[in-house]
Design a protein that fits this description.
The protein contains four helices and 17 strands. By secondary structure, it is α+β, with helices and mostly antiparallel strands. Strand 11 and strand 12 form a beta hairpin.
Length: 275
């Protein structure tokens, strides 16, 4: 068994080193092909967690992976069965032009319209580093700010009325992210000296395919987390769509941060500009 695993791992890395042009990647061993989707079929879209190391040898298997392809109800993590519970009337299986392999969740600025994982499940930024990757489309925003990655009754990241992205703590970008296009986002919360076993100032950073925004890290409490607000008292979500979401914790998250969000996004096929 050890020999088989080593052979598969070596084959994966050897295939990647030879170039990513041969699509779809398929190594057998009960793993379905890794396909591309999106504009010009340029973006790798994992259908199983084993696909992530196939994108790049520098990307480990995630700690959680929600594909968000359900037709109703909870969103279910394929690795540890962590459920993001639906609240409100968000929509499922929305088609977006140029994307044929995957569908998207939809939100329409209705208060507490969200999907959230409960306290004590998924990542815990109070005790560990976290690296999150997802797909989002900001169709529009109205006269108030809108949350799109949250932690309990507050937020990690929000979009402002002018389409710019702001991190909790007040640091905002300068570029308008509203578009008919799906965008990738990476959220890094790399633990600092406030977390046992860590030193330094920590890192709180959000990266998309057009901008990178670095805020000020602070130790956050563990709470519910997910897409859109997870409280009726919270701000409403934006008009837009959410695609698959993956998360890494601990040393895997820290290694991905060292790999850099730009290299991570480029490995998936995204064109990255502005940083």
């Amino acid at each position: 068994m050890i020999g088989l695993r080593a052979g598969v791992r070596a084959g994966l890395r050897g295939g990647i080193a030879a170039g990513l042009g041969a699509d779809p990647i398929d190594v057998g061993v009960s793993v379905p092909p890794l396909l591309r989707d999106g504009p010009s079929s340029a973006i790798y879209v994992p259908s199983v967690s084993a696909h992530f190391p196939m994108v790049s040898a520098s990307i480990p298997t995630p700690s959680w992976y929600w594909r968000d392809q359900e037709s109703s109800g909870d969103l279910i993590d394929s690795l540890n069965d962590v459920h993001m519970v639906q609240t409100g009337a968000g929509t499922y299986q929305n088609a977006i032009a140029s994307w044929s392999t995957i569908k998207f969740l939809g939100t329409t600025e209705v208060a507490a319209q969200c999907w959230g994982a409960a306290l004590g499940t998924a990542w815990n930024v109070f005790t560990q580093s976290v690296f999150i990757y997802g797909l989002v489309r900001f169709s529009s925003s109205s006269g108030t700010r809108r949350w799109f990655v949250v932690n309990g009754t507050t937020f990690y990241v929000e979009i402002l009325t002018n389409g710019t992205i702001r991190l909790n703590g007040g640091t905002a970008g300068t570029l308008d992210h509203r578009s008919a296009l799906v965008r990738p986002f990476v959220v890094e919360m790399i633990a600092g000296a406030g977390v046992t076993g860590h030193v330094g100032a920590g890192l709180f950073r959000v990266s998309t395919n057009i901008e990178q925004i670095t805020g000020t890290w602070s130790q956050q409490p563990d709470s519910t987390k997910g897409f859109g607000p997870v409280s009726a008292a919270a701000a409403a979500p934006m008009v837009g769509n959410f695609g698959p979401l993956a998360g890494w914790q601990g040393t895997d998250a820290e290694a991905l941060s060292t790999f850099t969000p730009k290299a991570f996004l480029q490995a998936f096929g995204w064109t990255v500009t502005g940083y």
